[in-house]
Amino acid sequence: MDTPKIEIALTVNGVRHDIAVAPWETLLDVLRERLHLTGSKKGCDQGQCGACTVLVDGERINSCLALVVSRDGAAITTVEGLAEGGELHPLQAAFIEHDAFQCGYCTPGQLCSGVALLHEGRVHTREDIRELMSGNLCRCGAYTNIADAIETVLDRQNAGREAAE
Amino acid sequence: METANIHHIGNPTNRVDGRLKVTGAARYAAEHEASGLLHGVIVSATVAAGRVVSLETERALSVPGVVEIFTHENRGSGAWLDRNWKDEVAPPGHPFRPLHSDRILFAGQPIALVVAETLEAARDAASLVTAAYEVEQHCTELEVKRSEAYEPPEKRSGIPPPPEPRGKPEDAFERARHRIAADYRIRAEHHNPMELFATTCVYEGKDKLTIYEKTQGSQNSQGYVASVFGLKTKNVRVINHYVGGAFGSALRPQQQLFFAVMASLELKRSVRVVLTRSQMFYIGYRPETRHAISMAADNEGRLTSIIHGAVAATSHYEDYQESIVNWSGMMYHCDNVKLSYGLAKLNTATPCDMRAPGAAVGVTAFECAVDELAHEAGIDPLEFRKRNFATLDENMGKQFTSKALSACYHQGAARIGWERRSAEPGAVRDGHELVGLGMATGMWEAFLMKASAEAKLTPDGRLQVSTAASDIGTGTWTILAQIGADALGLPVEDVTPMIGDSSLPASPVEGGSWTAASNGSAVLAACEAIKQTLFKHARKMANSPLTAASFDEVVFLSGRIALRTDPDRGLSLPEVMHASDLDEIRGSGKAAPKLLQMRKYVSYTHSAVFTEVRVDRDIGIVRIPKIVCAVAAGKIINPKTARSQILGGVVMGIGMALHEEAMTDHRLGKIMNHNLAEYHVPAHADIADIEVIFVDEQDEKVSPLGVKGLGEIGIVGTAAAVANAIFSATGKRVRDFPITLDKIIR
Amino acid sequence: MIRFDYVRANSVAEAVTALSSPGTRALAGGTNLVDLMKYDVMKPRRVVDINRLPLKDISERESGGLRIGALVTNTALAWDARVAKRYPLLASAILAGASPQLRNAATTGGNLLQRTRCYYFYDTSTPCNKREPGSGCSAIGGLNRIHAILGASNSCIAVHPSDMCVALAALDAEVEVVGPQGVRTIPFPEFHRLPGDDPQQDNTMQADELITAVILPPANFGRNHTYLKVRDRLSYAFALVSVAAALEMRDGIVRDARVALGGVAHKPWRDNEAEDLLNGERPDETTFRAFAERLMRDAKGQGHNDFKIELARRTILRALMQAAAGTPQNQSDKVIR
């Protein structure tokens, strides 16, 4: 059986890609192997570690469990798209400042997940950060530093919002 | 070394590789491109012992895009002799040779490699390969083989066997006022670094390879490939700039390296092989251990007898060894000690060093036993440990180069609020939760290994320092830059570290917590050589303010070489180089253990771990609101990355205490929870507050930098501290790790 | 992952037609189906992508209650203001499960169709009646720490892994499915089934039927409820035991009690007769203890999971105390109040 490939369009970090894909290709594999955006990581390939987290239409998902064909037309942000014009996203900068990673392999997933968390607006406590980041495993054990980094950016974000009000 | 001009050492410098890692630009082993790259997927055996009778590959070969399927019948030829398959850290025995024959020694053993033009085709085809086996009897259960445990006839290099017994431990035990005897079990654990094991082997033409490899030792992998495949070492270049965690699992070359290289040489194409998460459960692991410990103390709580026997699992083909029980003879003063260690062969892959191999399990069991004895003697467990403080390594009769453990006890206790601890277990309640405090001592050897480095200074004032070290998240990139910057008085941004490449100066594998001390000292020595050259040229310059100075009288500060007594009088480094018409200055340096000193001294890192736990009285859920880990590790080069090392060790210690275990169905000889959903590593919600303290510890002897190393110490003692806190909270001793809630409510 | 064909359905009718051809599976969020396909546990010949179907709304029903489209994501459902206010038990159960990433992709219909996490079901080299009917059950006599204590059979001791479904069971939800014969509504207790002799069937849907909605009846459990989940780590793990408890209280007396258990059976477990023991009673420890005892009356361990029986009793008791006190479990705060 040689299923014909299916034409789809993906906008990744603002760049449109028209590609032909097989039904069984995942978003993660297409990002890594076809588009050479290897920032998104494969840690388990089964939705159990979160290293492959990307934003699809603004929401964080595990790209390893997404058949890319079903995401035709989606706008995707990967870790490579978080910085703007060479300037790091505040969370990226906070990750460096708080040493929120060691080996760096779970980091792109943590960052995409964290950026989504900042947008979702559902964090009220430190416990909320921990719970809502629990889909991203870190075997180097940087959790407390990750929470610190997120908290710092969140506080700044909230302070900015209050100042604006 | 100079002390006047230290600016970067001791600074919490941000990781120099940080930006690459937060932007996704750091490339790991599976992320390097090559033209015409093929993808290999390994097929694993589904039985634990026997023979492959037949392999059905027809269906797989018919999948579009499949290029070749390698089995034991058509594999490329490797070296004939065992010694050609031994890597730098191989234990005694016969190293595993993938696809060597039809024999199956453990479940998950590779039986075929499918190579295809795309990853999807290879994966698809691999699932269509089927094997028929002639099944033989297997055993994967340590308890069954415990009675057949044997002392390994050949010792593993670098692993001291248990010391000879001292005193009369049995008699002392019989006579003692206070005594305990207990069995402990620590189940097998898997490293599970986040990155999947991967090799991208780039075929560069006849017998020449560039290999991007997940390894803790580029030169170890290079040597293995050259020796197994009969290639010239200079034609094999292994690169491991970024390693997505390893924790020991990438010390030895793993299966994917062999397969990628073999397929690449056979097909004359570039090949990438990546293990699946499930397959990673069938490479090295921390073996299950069983411990029988009996201990005794006198009326004053002084230890009078220590007997610790441990049995650990190994494979059928190698005698993997760790130093498990030795710690029990050196952590405290005791005149009557007997330690023993045996191995039992199981149908598994050979175990592999995992963060603090040996100590992580041996000290866990022993420090639980110490807690039990302190309780039995009616003495506070911290006080008990202080009373039995060891001022000497009593196994070897040698002195410690330093041991600031008392400061760890003192500062750690203060930060956890040890005075809150109730002597009576189960006495403190808060709502439905029982609250307990526990502690343990940790210990790890401070190694100094042979390592080489080179440094190169250019007239633009930039310094390059290079050594074939690896950074597996440890911060090696960063601290080498700091060391170089300090040595020559440069901004850290002007130093380019170069590591992760087998073509760089010789380095041991990255393990044992020795990299900072060993490679760091080699880099320091290389920089010292440059300083000497600079000084020589600077003195010779016309009107040099340094003409009359000796080397000891100059400092390297702010990009200048100047008089120590009058730093305004000096020359900029570019000035010196231009005047002397130098394009570059190179220096090389080495580090090596000081054998003479080692006759009299030993060096260890020490720690005290304090834990508060809260246990739901009915449901048995354990929470750890706070852990304090106080560490005496000599000089801390970078408090930021150093702290992260300890955090990581503590988190893995929490995993050992509460979560991690390989669940093997012994009927099948197979691990059944071979994924990250059912093999639980701590998740973010499990980790609350961890405080790291580095106590002041000056040690001139341990290494030229005064550094001891930090990669292991964070895990040592942590699981015991948690278990002891659970006892304090509940009055329940769980001696079987991990302490899952069923063991608490039982 | 074995190769397969792909079709995209543009209408429910198209989807149903596609499903009538053998070996076809509906693909929604993919969080479980794709996972199972990667392990070669499920090998559909064709996948029909239903993600474009207009099943993404939560709407009010004339008779009260809510109609939740099958493609409403777990996240959208958990954070919907109406759900949070009127069915906080459901929101809480959803948030106790998986991770934010998975909840963003997973759908309401897909959650109902989640398959068990039994180790042997996932490992194609071992016998499993659910995966390979007639091959045997490896979990019996094998590793069964996470397995069923209620309603198991000699063929299968697997448990249903969903958290959301436990709440739906407690809330007496209904499942709306569409097939070639049209629309039918399945009461929640009849949707999932016990393994019996044919554990390959997780539920009572036909292969050519498609879930289009979950119906929530009007409910009065806005105050006295809780979802209490006990697992091996504090988040991102499947339940050892979970309890969805909802009480309607008047004048200090329980008028309507609903208790559903997760992690203990092949389906979310309810026992209406046992619940009757609570109705008309004061919500105190004695009553709840008797209830827990009764609910576990026929519980049977398999060895490794024996502890679950006592754990379930204690979790039921604590959950009912939480519900009665109006202090539901917070899914971020790991202290069980």
Automatic annotation (TrEMBL), chain A:
It holds the Pfam family Fer2_2. The keyword Metal-binding applies. Residues 6-82 form the 2Fe-2S ferredoxin-type domain. Keywords: 2Fe-2S, Iron, Iron-sulfur, Metal-binding, Oxidoreductase. GO terms for molecular function: 2 iron, 2 sulfur cluster binding; metal ion binding; oxidoreductase activity, acting on the aldehyde or oxo group of donors. InterPro entries: 2Fe-2S-bd, 2Fe-2S-bd_dom_sf, 2Fe-2S_ferredoxin-like_sf, 2Fe-2S_ferredoxin-type, 2Fe2S_fd_BS, Aldehyde_Oxdr_Iron-Sulfur, Beta-grasp_dom_sf. This is (2Fe-2S)-binding protein. It comes from Bradyrhizobium cytisi.
From TrEMBL, chain B:
It holds the Pfam family Ald_Xan_dh_C. SMART domains: Ald_Xan_dh_C (SM01008). InterPro entries: Ald_Oxase/Xan_DH_a/b, Ald_Oxase/Xan_DH_a/b_sf, Ald_Oxase/xanthine_DH-like, AldOxase/xan_DH_MoCoBD1, AldOxase/xan_DH_MoCoBD2, AldOxase/xan_DH_Mopterin-bd_sf. It comes from the Bacteria. GO terms for molecular function: iron ion binding; oxidoreductase activity. Residues 144-172 are annotated as: Disordered. This is Xanthine dehydrogenase family protein molybdopterin-binding subunit. It comes from Bradyrhizobium cytisi.
UniProtKB/TrEMBL annotation, chain C:
It comes from the Bacteria. One of its GO terms (molecular function) is oxidoreductase activity. Coiled coil: none annotated. SMART domains: CO_deh_flav_C. The keyword Zinc-finger does not apply. InterPro entries: CO_DH_flav_C (IPR005107), CO_DH_flav_C_dom_sf (IPR036683), Diverse_Substr_Oxidored (IPR051312), FAD-bd_PCMH (IPR016166), FAD-bd_PCMH-like_sf (IPR036318), FAD-bd_PCMH_sub1 (IPR016167), FAD-bd_PCMH_sub2 (IPR016169), Mopterin_DH_FAD-bd (IPR002346). The keyword Flavoprotein applies. Residues 1-221 form the FAD-binding PCMH-type domain. Keywords: FAD, Flavoprotein. Pfam families: CO_deh_flav_C, FAD_binding_5. This is Xanthine dehydrogenase family protein subunit M. It comes from Bradyrhizobium cytisi.
